[in-house]
Specification:
Blueprint (H helix, E strand, L loop, with lengths): L6 H19 L4 H9 L1 E3 L6 E3 H26 L6 H26 L16 H11 L5 H25 L6 H18 L7 H22 L4 H10 L2 H27 L14 H25 L13 H11 L3 H11 L4 H49 L1
Antiparallel strand pairs: 1-2
Helix pairs in contact: 1-5, 1-10, 3-6, 3-9, 3-10, 4-6, 4-11, 5-6, 5-14, 6-12, 7-8, 7-9, 8-9, 10-13, 11-12, 11-14, 12-14, 13-14
Family: Belongs to the NhaA Na(+)/H(+) (TC 2.A.33) antiporter family.
Protein name: Na(+)/H(+) antiporter NhaA
GO molecular function, one term: sodium:proton antiporter activity
Length: about 400
């Protein structure tokens, strides 16, 4: 199980699953897979009746968002974002990485009626970005790694807020209120995990989590928000143990399964000129908008705070961080589903654009990270040689 925790392996599985889904959808078995994805599975005696695809994107993906929320809480309390001074610089870069792609998307799609898809290119897939960094980034200094990690985490916070605010219409306040009670009880029971009644507490928490997820889904709020809320209220130390236990499941099963399901798209037999505006908006905004937005935000953040505490990040390092931010993948695919839920043909083109845009960002970021890593390795060798010469003198 240890190998599945690897950021490199997680990124590979995610990419392989998406490629397999796209290939399978365009072969003879494609129609059968699409019918299976649309088949409904209901829980008898409950109002829960979702398609297989929605059980994956609304149900299983909530577990992934729970893991993300636990990591967010850890970083905000004892990690790299536990003070304003630590968080402000990557926060400015993250906001730039959200604003510029959104503006580019809106500019490209202006007048098309599809401007509401602006959140799609604003997301960063933290697992994939860190996977690229792990594969190609030997020798990258810790300050850049920390900056990229903080940037990706803050980007996830923005994505969660966007999903909660912009993809919720007329929520059922009764169900939402009951879900809030479920979240509060879940947090309270998590305090008993260190006592004698640990196993009972675990059983109660599983039941509360399932009930809370169901209530959030029935309220009209996207059900993944239940995972976020539960992860944020759980006591930090046991939550980190749960995260560790769930990591192989999210990396090895949930995320690849979601990537496969989301990539089950028949490539449209149309000329490039016939592709809808969202395709071009996403394709341009992800790899280009993220680089511009994050690099510009990172540069502006270099003027914030006391000079001696500002991290020294070169323009090349900021461009590298921006390229990594352009790997939208998981969250961008989810936002694409939500934004174009009523227009499946546009959603299919959006999925292709997310996959292509993210692939471009993967290639560009791999090249930039490799070159940056090689530069810092040479620098270390030169410094070591200088030290030896001085010692010999």
């Amino acid at each position: 199980m240890g190998i599945i925790r690897s950021e490199r392996v997680a990124a590979f599985l995610l990419l392989a699953a998406a490629a397999l889904g796209l290939i399978a959808a365009n072969t003879a078995i494609g129609p059968a897979l699409l019918r299976l994805q649309d088949a409904h599975l209901a829980i008898p005696g409950t109002p829960l009746d979702l398609s297989v695809g929605h059980w994956i994107s609304d149900g299983l993906l909530a577990v992934f968002f729970f893991v993300v929320a636990v990591e967010l809480k850890n970083e905000l309390t004892v990690g790299q974002l536990n003070s304003v001074s630590k968080a402000v610089r990557p926060a400015i870069a993250a906001l730039g990485g959200v604003a510029v792609p959104a503006l580019i998307y809106v500019a490209v799609t202006a007048g098309s009626g599809y401007e509401g898809g602006w959140p799609i290119p604003t997301a960063t897939d933290i697992a994939f970005a860190l996977g690229v960094l792990a594969v190609f980034g030997r020798g990258i200094p810790s300050r850049l790694r920390i900056f990229i990690l903080a940037l990706a985490i803050l980007d996830d916070i923005v994505a969660i807020v966007i999903i909660a605010v912009f993809f919720t219409a007329d929520p059922n306040l009764v169900f939402l209120g009951l879900a809030a009670i479920g979240v509060a009880l879940f947090g309270l029971v998590s305090r008993l995990l260190g006592g004698r009644h640990r196993m009972l507490a675990v059983a109660v928490m599983i039941v509360l989590a399932a009930l809370t997820w169901s209530l959030v889904y029935l309220s009209g709020v996207h059900a993944t928000i239940a995972g976020v809320a539960l992860g944020l209220v759980m006591v930090r130390k046991p939550a980190m143990h749960v995260r560790h236990a769930l990591e192989p499941v999210t990396n090895g099963v949930i995320l690849p399964l979601f990537a496969f399901s989301a990539a089950l798209v028949a490539i449209p037999q149309v000329s490039p000129a016939e592709l809808a505006a969202p395709f071009w908006g996403i394709l341009i905004a992800l790899p280009v908008g993220k680089v511009i937005g994050i690099a510009l935000g990172g540069w502006l953040s270099s003027f914030v705070g006391p000079r001696e505490k500002r991290p020294h990040l070169t323009p090349y390092a900021l461009l590298t961080a921006g390229a990594l931010g352009g790997v939208g993948f998981t969250v961008s695919l989810l936002m694409n589903e939500l934004a174009f839920a009523s227009r499946p043909e546009v959603a299919d083109e959006g999925t292709l654009a997310v996959l292509l845009g993210s692939s471009i960002s993967i290639v560009v970021s791999a090249v930039l990270v490799s070159r940056l890593s090689a530069y810092y390795r040479r620098l270390r060798v030169l410094r070591a040689d200088a030290v030896r010469r001085l010692s010999g003198a």
